Amino acid sequence: MAAITAAQYGTGALVTALMHPIGYAKVLIQAGYEPLPPKASVSLFGKESLVYPNVLQYMSHIKKVDGFWGLYRGVFPRVVSGTIGNIVQHNVGDKLKAWFPQAKASPEEEEGDELMSWLRSFCLETSQETVARCVGIIASHPLQVVTVRCMIQFVGRETEYEGLFSSLGAIYRNDGILGFFAGLVPRLVGEILTVWVTNFLAKLLNRYLVEDKDLRSYTAAACGLVVSHFTYPFTLVANVMAINSSGLKASSPPHMPRYESWVDCFSDLNAKGQLKRGSSLFWRYYQGPVIWRDGRMMAAPRYLN
């Protein structure tokens, strides 16, 4: 069993490392950094629009500036963070299941109060998963902060956050203990909402609509994809707050306002219509002011990075 678990963690770490360049580009986009200007295009509805280069073109730009291995800036702390989070979540989840086992309903309860039995089961399982995930996130979040700050240095060409331990030291010097948990609250809020809504929808669908037992195992994953679309703003705000006021160029005006709290950040992005920034990797529409020159639509220069 231990060997299987280790293999699973190893596979997860490998996949994370291989997909890192996409996540790297996405973090830069989430921070609002657009080094390549938008180009005129046509939307699916035939409307003339300005579209930013897709994530593959964005990655190509990173490679052009920093070379191939530059695409893997921040990969080590990201892999370590994910591995620690998964190990902690798995172990805490196992402990909770052992401490609070699912009680079997008596025949009288099954006949008389089936809905209440179903709700008790749902609440217990979801509460255990929520606690396990949150503990895993809290344990790994300092390395998540290191990861995001390592990557965002691309904007200002800084080198303060390079090695793992030196980066942890830099966070402590700049922000104190609380710096290790910058952006933690919106990340937890988004995770809790995702777990509860996903589990509720999955159990509801499996109970009343999905009869095939093989298909039921995929219901939660499908619901998770849908729900994560709606909870994405919390992921965005978490990453923005992880770098905000860190002293890095990308986290300071004029690139980014200084936010007093994550609620302030959420409100500002919402007012600007930017809460989905970075959620789409291919059709990324420019939403700022435009000018017309020689009959062509262009983005107003002062609004570009």
From TrEMBL:
<keyword id="KW-0812">Transmembrane</keyword>
<keyword id="KW-1000">Mitochondrion outer membrane</keyword>
<dbReference type="Pfam" id="PF00153">
    <property type="entry name" value="Mito_carr"/>
</dbReference>
<dbReference type="InterPro" id="IPR018108">
    <property type="entry name" value="MCP_transmembrane"/>
</dbReference>
<feature type="repeat" description="Solcar">
    <location>
        <begin position="1"/>
        <end position="99"/>
    </location>
</feature>
<keyword id="KW-0496">Mitochondrion</keyword>
<dbReference type="InterPro" id="IPR023395">
    <property type="entry name" value="MCP_dom_sf"/>
</dbReference>
<keyword id="KW-0813">Transport</keyword>
<protein>
    <recommendedName>
        <fullName>Mitochondrial carrier homolog 2</fullName>
    </recommendedName>
</protein>
<feature type="repeat" description="Solcar">
    <location>
        <begin position="120"/>
        <end position="208"/>
    </location>
</feature>
<comment type="similarity">
    <text>Belongs to the mitochondrial carrier (TC 2.A.29) family.</text>
</comment>
<dbReference type="GO" id="GO:0005741">
    <property type="term" value="C:mitochondrial outer membrane"/>
</dbReference>
<keyword id="KW-0472">Membrane</keyword>
<keyword id="KW-0677">Repeat</keyword>
<keyword id="KW-1133">Transmembrane helix</keyword>
